[in-house]
Amino acid sequence: MKVSVIGTGYVGLISGVGYASQGHDVICVDVLEEKVAKINAGEPPIHEAGLPERLRQVLDKGNFKATTDITDAIENSDICFISVGTPSAADGSIDLKYIEQASKDLGTALKNKDSYFTIVVKSTVTPGTTEGTVIKNVEAASGKKAGQDFGVCMNPEFLREGKAIEDFDNPDRIVIGRLDEKSSEALKALNKAFTCPVLETPLSTAEMIKYVSNAFLAVKISYANEVAEFCKKIGADPYEVFKGVGMDKRINPAFFNSGLGWGGSCFPKDTKEFAAAAKREGANPRIVDAAIETNKILPSKIVELAGDVSGKTVAVLGLAFKAGTDDVRESQAVEVIKLLNEKGAKIQAYDPEASEVEGLEREETMEKALEGAEICLVLTEWPEFENIPFSGKIIDGRNIVENRENYEGLFW
Ligand code: NAD
Ligand code: UGA
């Protein structure tokens, strides 16, 4: 099939390269020329396991390209995914500016297309957005009618950064929100290679499924962290506790790892918007609000454990919001660094992959970060931090360190 993708971030690029590797013709569009040039040169702009190889393979095969020209992409495709960012606005609610722009651009490019076209919203958008923003903008810019000239689906993405290719290849389920039955025909045909269950729903139900999934996972982790704090007080190991808890099939063991909590480009913004949207509708999201609060105080807990750091050299190992990614968006490690700075610590930070953190100088190696340090904080669970060549005190925020002589765990 002929596919286009608007936005070449974690979701757009992985999906584009993924569908191309299944044999479809894919054109990815981005507004950033530099990003497009890198992708076409076979250099992934993000760190993702397996992506360099897969990108090279589809470029060599000739059925994948990136461009800044949306008209070319729409002219040469029958189905288009919108996968631009949906960050938080200053008040915590969703900022739809990229969705607004992308849907206007798509509508304009669709104006001269004669054949039926399918638009798929893949970005995480608050319930009502596909109908109220995307359809409205595309209709206004194209002069065409949804359901008649073009179909509309909302197809939430569940991939994890660091495991994005693995998750694209092996989804647990595919959720297809659709405007009408015809709207989902092309998307179902495109997804024929997958064997997982496919759930078709109204558009706003699909939008809701994505928020509820992320909010539930965040709640699970915050619950694990509350339990872990309690466990430490009675001398129980929270990892052992949750091993036992997770053996219940109704509960399942995933996402109970306690520690510094959740960050990244998704859980923080999606929980905030879930809570804000619920309140806008007059509902009361007490549990999600509490999960957000529990998560917010975790950086200060690890800094408290470090004691008086004023004038001391502190080695910080890990900046990415989790291992396996270069992403530092809303990383808990960045919050810890802010607090350490406020307390007058001299920070020597190292991360094997993390992208730049504003205002922070970085060491080239773990050994350099440890040189002359009095204390070491471990903030991301990179495997290379299992054994840290350091004789000073180690405080582990992620339960990753194996050498535990002069050691304290955040909650264990
Ligand atoms: P990202 O910020 O990494 O990438 C978005 C890309 O869209 C950028 O390259 C940007 O330049 C481009 N863009 C913005 N406006 C554009 C326009 N008008 N035309 C063309 N390109 C444009 O975002 P991401 O992390 O890939 O997330 C995208 C969406 O998917 C978000 O809604 C996010 O919540 C959701 N999501 C993300 C993940 C993840 O793991 N990152 C997983 C599931 C869902
Ligand atoms: C998460 C979801 O897992 C994906 O299903 C979803 O598609 C994505 O958000 C999204 O909507 O963008 P991601 O943010 O890549 O994926 O990372 P996770 O592996 O979920 O981790 C999120 C955060 O929770 C990390 O900071 C991680 O360290 C933390 N975490 C995770 C824990 O503290 N404990 C756990 O047990 C698991």
From TrEMBL:
- Per the UniProt entry, the Enzyme Commission number(s) are 1.1.1.22
Q: Which GO terms describe its molecular function?
A: NAD binding; UDP-glucose 6-dehydrogenase activity
Listed under GO biological process in this entry are: polysaccharide biosynthetic process; UDP-glucuronate biosynthetic process
Question: Which positions are catalytic residues?
Answer: C266 (nucleophile)
Top EC group: oxidoreductase
**Matching Gene3D superfamilies:** Cytochrome c1, transmembrane anchor, C-terminal, NAD(P)-binding Rossmann-like Domain
What InterPro entries does the database record attribute to this sequence?
A: 6-PGluconate_DH-like_C_sf (IPR008927), NAD(P)-bd_dom_sf (IPR036291), UDP-Glc/GDP-Man (IPR017476), UDP-Glc/GDP-Man_DH_C (IPR014027), UDP-Glc/GDP-Man_DH_C_sf (IPR036220), UDP-Glc/GDP-Man_DH_dimer (IPR014026), UDP-Glc/GDP-Man_DH_N (IPR001732), UDPglc_DH_bac (IPR028357)
Every copy of the UDP-glucose/GDP-mannose dehydrogenase C-terminal domain together lies at 315-403
Which residues are noted in the entry as NAD(+)-binding?
Answer: D30, K35, T86, T124, E161, K269, R329
Record's Pfam families? UDPG_MGDP_dh (PF00984), UDPG_MGDP_dh_C (PF03720), UDPG_MGDP_dh_N (PF03721)
Q: Which reaction does it catalyse?
A: UDP-alpha-D-glucose + 2 NAD(+) + H2O = UDP-alpha-D-glucuronate + 2 NADH + 3 H(+)
Provide the residue positions that the database annotates as binding substrate: F158, L159, R160, E161, K210, F255, F256, N257, S258, G259, G263, K322
| Keyword vocabulary terms for this entry | NAD, Oxidoreductase
> In which pathway is this protein known to take part?
Nucleotide-sugar biosynthesis; UDP-alpha-D-glucuronate biosynthesis; UDP-alpha-D-glucuronate from UDP-alpha-D-glucose: step 1/1
Write out the similarity annotation: Belongs to the UDP-glucose/GDP-mannose dehydrogenase family.
Could you tell me what this protein is called? UDP-glucose 6-dehydrogenase
